[in-house]
# Entry
Amino acid sequence: MTRSSLASMKRIILSFVVLASFATAPRANAQKEVDDALKQASEAAAKMGVTMPDVKKMMEDDAKEEAAREARKKERVQAVLNAPGPVAFPDWMPKVPEFKPAGPAAKKIMDDLPQIVQTGTSPLHPIAIADEWEKFKNDKFSLSRMNSNINGTVTQTVTYRGMEDSTLEVRMEAKREPREKITRVTLSSPLPLPADPEDD
# Structure
């Protein structure tokens, strides 16, 4: 075996030792387990004659980078919310039968992203509303439908997304609690989020 192939093998073994140590670390004592795993990996590296990289520093750098990325994302989301202009759903969005809006559509943050959101109610059952929305079926859009019934709370979610342009999306969530006589409806459509300039 050549020196270069031996060195490659040592690197692979070292990487495996580090990953295996992290994978078996219990969450309750995560920091202590990570420190122990790093110590074991360092000892294993020393026995193989391999210099152990400063994994702790690498992890700290990664954490700082991730925090900076999240901060930049929040700034971009806020910029989209603050941008002037009309707030309207795509004109192709299906109608909710007997929908009574709780107010006008507005820009809001949902799932950490800027979206157009409108809430309201309908006397129809969530399944009936979702069935009506599903009738829209169009070759230009993909359809997904999720159904749930948890402790009597019925929720139906229907989403349409552009086949060629995935930024075109509308979602309808219809939810009814047990013993309620109305269905609460949430309509949403994502707003374009500018790319992170640091990713260029």
